[in-house]
Amino acid sequence: MDRHIQVLLNRISLLATTIATILLLSIILHPPDTCISHFSPHNPLKFPRSTCDSHHQPRPFSTLEKKNHRLWSTSAWQKKVQSFSHIFSDAQNHSPSRSFSLLSNSSRSLCLLAGAGQEAMALRQIGVSDVTAIDLVDSPPLVSRADPYNLPFFDDAFDFAFSAQFDVVLFPARFVAEMERVVRVGGFCLLLVELSTHEELKEIVGLFKGGKLFSADNCTFSGSKMTEIVVRVTNSTVN
Question: What digits encode the pLDDT tens for the residues 31-51?
């Protein structure tokens, strides 16, 4: 019985060796199409030392200025900046619900969770000169890195604060507390949120412990229905 098993194993081993040899010869004689040129003594293969190394076409170095120029030239970027410009232009102007503007060209302005910086660019384009934009990841030169739940600014440092990302914050109460802390008494916090019901609006405004609801209006932003909430800071808060 042991002899028969040994013969069977020898046959299986021989068959496996034969198949492997055939496959190897097939690969050698018919190499697959790849981006690597065929080997020859006059054109030896040069394997890359890292993922950044290529012997075919070296990747051209692109400066931050060039990258930003490409990004800022896209229609998606320009449309987003234009949408923010409409929001801020309305804040600069009087409206039936208010007798004065929320924002002026001299306002010290802060954008929270500003992403790539479209809102910062929009503020500058409408004439606001003092603009600070922060996010968890920086996007120079428009956005600096900072923790929105622990802002690196003194109390009352700004006249106007804005965020269009309140819907995705992890700690809404802490986010609002910091936003409110850095805006002076008499200044304004503007949140752009998804279309909200009366109860949702009441819940958001309730997070502002040192401010009062100034206005709440539904609007269209980049083709989406949104609610624009403006809170006026009435008391300095201590966190």
Answer: 665 555 555 555 655 666 666
Distance separating alpha carbons of residues 63 and 47, to the nearest angstrom: 27
Residue bearing tokens 């405004």: 205
Residue 224's DSSP bridge partners are 221
CA dihedral 178, 150, 166, 211 (to 10 degrees): 0
Residue type, position 40, single letter: S
Measured distance CA(120)–CA(131) in Å, rounded: 7
169 pLDDT tier (thresholds 50, 70, 90): very high
Whole-structure pTM value: 0.73
